Write a sequence for this structure.
């Protein structure tokens, strides 16, 4: 027997054995192309004032004499006087094609300045962070979707009752098939290890022929694999990706130019990889909080509050900048130092998900308790 | 053999080397406490350089690099000259990072006092530094050796001070160029950076709910302005240097306490006081119990540790003895899932190996998901089961264990006895014994539910 058939068979038999509902779901014919979701967390606090630049702000050159000057003339202009950082070439093109929707001055509701707490808050989506329950995990559960994390372990966003596949590139030589059979047998009394082995083999089967061995965890490679694992009949309905490196306390100009280019390229790779599925895809990009309005003494910015987010994809009603601009004068800043968040990140996420996946009021309440939806048409009606 | 011996070597230690289980079985608690009587707590058996040496070498290479550029003038140099100073310095940094990391792991593999190496790794992760960029690649591994290891059995406040003054930490959290706005350097345009101060309060001491405010962060940041690193080409000193002309003048107020003194003393007094703060005791004791015993440690256990912490003003050795003596630490159920690093070390300890090749150590840990000095966050690597028990991580372990099994000729049955004693399930026991080959048997042992947990 060829090895990929063997593994495939092994995964499938386990599927039936261990998780009947999951298996039944997989057996259902997918009649239409499912609306897909990609959740991308930018870890480290992206500086929104350097990403979606409010060129109309007279305060900006005063707050950031060094940081705001050099990119001023290279900005990729959007509407209402906002300009995208010059590294965001693809995103700018999408904006023109109405597939990008930037939202300014958002905040998750978390107003301390710890990365780790801020990220947990953004991922959990609950007023009181629960490290074992993420908003996407709850969503996957109520909608009975199949989810994938491009990570070595399940991130908080996807934790919850449903099982989630994780995938990360491996450079190790593959083990013999018979060892998996033996392990399966040995793990019979261990529910956790059985479940992990089963979903590990499932994902392994999906990436087996796809030259994943050469990949090393570069964002572009992860983006490529993510698109692969989402395409086709057995592809996941939603996936989570993450990109770190945004904590620009110093040398921000160079670092952000590089970071944003990586982000832009990765998202373009996802679009290419998804092919026609892109038309039905919603990508949500957010970060834990923003950075100080003023530049610091080391050519960077410190932890702040309000930031920006992106909705992107063929499903998005793009080509407009949303959000309410709070202004940058001293009294308009949060605690006189940070961009003031004027709308809540989750009000946008919940509204977008609700329109994209048709959530009932009850489902919304389970997934995003106490969140009021943003009133805007975020998803295109085809 | 008692289950206590199995727990002692696996939960507290880093897994049994051959014969260790037998040694521990007479009195497992005393056997562990004896580890804590070692002086010094850990010995790095290698000749790797001190951070001051590394700084000097890097400064020299930097100078050569500048001269090369000058000499080349406008003539474009060949693109990748393997012998130029820039390449040399890159190679030097990368090679040191790998040598340091592998040496620490090898010392932990061969040590008869693996509890001490586990404790070192705990604090190294508590004060996590990542090898971001060229300079930190070589410097980050020196923090645990120079600031943590010497204070491993001492007072927590001494460790905190040593860590905060270490070049790797100052650089990693951007304090080396943080200067008071009203200092002489501040008036020349240099500014404050509160990154280190925030992480000290949030991660190293009080904990995120420890009761501090944004004002406290800024006050501490000002208190440690001027805490910097000597420049080998300009300064006479080496390593940590206090740049008086960058220190924010004036009294500070932190967590309700006043700090009227000026200079280096001010920041030191602030750090000592936050090290003695009750929230620090709570935070550290919870983290220790969480690391050693369970993701959800019993409150009674945490309380015992906190009490001992208060009684001894934060003496790490005494708190560890309390942890070892507490009955809550010995529940038979193994509640922790080994991290990739623990899995790697305990696998080699099991077969009594020594001196694993540097590249093998480094690349294995990378592929298993825990590259040394690469947590990428000052919070360090996660310490919950869910951080490590992902599906693709499990497949990586199978692949790694299977590759190791084909290289070593191990007798799985006897290793099962010498690492886990009799405390394996019937199913595991039979699976290992009935494996189709010696190689498969050893892979199954390493991947057994009992060996994956502690």
């Amino acid at each position: 027997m060829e090895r990929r058939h063997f593994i495939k068979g092994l995964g499938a038999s386990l599927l039936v054995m261990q998780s009947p509902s999951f298996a039944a779901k997989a057996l259902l014919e997918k009649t239409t192309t499912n609306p897909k979701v990609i959740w991308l967390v930018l870890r480290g606090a992206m500086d929104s004032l350097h990403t979606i630049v409010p060129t109309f702000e007279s305060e900006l050159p005063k707050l950031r004499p060094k940081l705001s000057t050099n990119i001023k003339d290279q900005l990729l202009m959007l509407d209402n006087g906002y300009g995208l950082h010059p590294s965001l070439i693809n995103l700018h093109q999408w904006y023109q094609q109405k597939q990008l929707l930037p939202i300014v001055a958002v905040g998750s509701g978390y107003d301390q300045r710890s990365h780790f707490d801020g990220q947990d808050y953004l991922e959990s989506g609950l007023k009181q962070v629960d490290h074992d329950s993420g908003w996407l995990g709850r969503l996957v559960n109520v909608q009975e979707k199949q989810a994938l994390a491009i990570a070595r372990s399940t991130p908080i966003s996807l934790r919850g009752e449903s099982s989630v596949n994780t995938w990360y590139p491996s450079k190790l030589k593959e083990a013999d098939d018979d060892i998996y059979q033996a392990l399966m047998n040995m793990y019979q009394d261990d529910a956790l290890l059985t479940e992990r082995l089963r979903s590990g083999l499932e994902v392994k089967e999906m990436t087996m022929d796809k030259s994943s061995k050469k990949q090393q965890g570069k964002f572009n490679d992860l983006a490529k694999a993510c698109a692969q694992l989402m395409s086709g009949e057995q592809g996941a309905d939603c996936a989570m990706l993450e990109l770190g490196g945004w904590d620009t306390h110093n040398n921000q100009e160079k670092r952000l130019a590089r970071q944003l280019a990586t982000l832009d390229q990765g998202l373009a790779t996802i679009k290419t990889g998804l092919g026609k599925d892109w038309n039905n895809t919603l990508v949500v990009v957010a970060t834990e909080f923003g950075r100080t309005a003023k530049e610091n003494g080391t050519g960077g910015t410190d932890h702040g509050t309000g930031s920006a987010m992106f909705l992107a994809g063929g499903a998005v009603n793009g080509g407009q900048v949303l959000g309410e601009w709070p202004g940058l004068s001293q009294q308009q800043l949060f605690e006189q130092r940070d961009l003031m968040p004027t709308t809540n990140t989750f009000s946008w996420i919940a509204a977008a998900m609700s329109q994209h996946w048709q959530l009932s009021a009850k489902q919304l309440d389970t997934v995003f308790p106490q969140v009021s939806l943003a009133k805007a048409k975020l998803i295109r009606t085809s | 053999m008692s289950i206590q011996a199995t727990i002692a070597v696996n939960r507290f230690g880093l897994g049994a080397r051959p014969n260790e289980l037998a040694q521990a079985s007479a009195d497992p608690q005393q056997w562990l406490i004896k580890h804590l009587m070692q002086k010094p707590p850990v010995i790095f058996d290698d000749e790797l350089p001190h951070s001051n040496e590394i700084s000097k070498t890097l400064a020299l290479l930097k100078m050569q690099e500048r001269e090369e550029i000058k000499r080349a003038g406008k003539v474009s140099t060949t693109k990748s000259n393997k012998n130029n100073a820039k390449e040399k310095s890159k190679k030097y940094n990368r090679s040191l990072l790998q040598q340091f990391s592998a040496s620490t792991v090898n010392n932990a593999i061969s040590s008869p006092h693996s509890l001490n190496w586990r404790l070192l790794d705990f604090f190294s992760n508590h004060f996590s530094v990542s090898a971001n960029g060229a300079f930190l690649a070589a410097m980050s591994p020196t923090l645990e050796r120079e600031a943590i290891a010497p204070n491993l059995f001492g007072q927590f406040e001494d460790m905190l001070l040593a860590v905060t003054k270490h070049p790797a930490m100052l650089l990693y959290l951007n304090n080396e160029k943080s200067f008071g706005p009203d200092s002489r350097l501040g008036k020349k345009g240099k500014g404050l950076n509160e990154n280190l101060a925030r992480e000290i309060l949030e991660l190293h001491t009080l904990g995120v709910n420890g009761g501090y405010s944004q004002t406290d962060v800024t006050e501490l940041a000002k208190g440690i302005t001027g805490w910097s690193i000597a420049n080998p080409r300009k300064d006479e000193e080496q390593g940590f240097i206090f740049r008086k002309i960058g220190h924010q003048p004036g009294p500070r107020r932190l967590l309700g306490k006043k700090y009227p003194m000026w200079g280096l003393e001010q920041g030191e007094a602030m750090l000592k006081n936050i090290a003695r703060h009750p929230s620090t005791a709570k935070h550290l004791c919870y983290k220790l119990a969480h690391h050693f015993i369970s993701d959800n440690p019993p409150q009674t256990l945490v309380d015992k540790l906190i009490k001992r912490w208060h009684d001894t003003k934060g003496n790490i050795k005494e708190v560890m003895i309390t942890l070892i003596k507490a009955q809550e630490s010995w529940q038979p159920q193994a509640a922790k899932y080994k991290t990739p690093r623990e899995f790697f070390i305990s696998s080699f300890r099991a077969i009594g190996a020594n001196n694993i090749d540097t590249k093998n150590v480094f690349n294995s840990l990378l592929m298993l998901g825990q590259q040394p000095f690469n947590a990428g966050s000052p919070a360090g690597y996660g310490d919950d089961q869910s951080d490590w028990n992902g599906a693709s991580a499990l497949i990586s372990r199978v692949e790694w264990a299977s590759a190791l099994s084909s290289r070593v000729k191990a007798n799985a049955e006897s290793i099962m006895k010498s690492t886990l004693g009799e405390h394996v399930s019937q199913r595991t026991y039979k699976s290992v014994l009935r494996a189709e080959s010696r190689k498969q048997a050893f892979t199954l042992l390493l991947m057994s539910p009992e060996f994956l947990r502690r």
Observations:
- Chain B has 25 helices and four strands.
- Residues 153 and 316 of chain B are 5 Å apart (CA to CA).
- The beta strands of chain B are 227-229, 240-242, 252-254, 257-259.
- The mean pLDDT of chain B is 94.
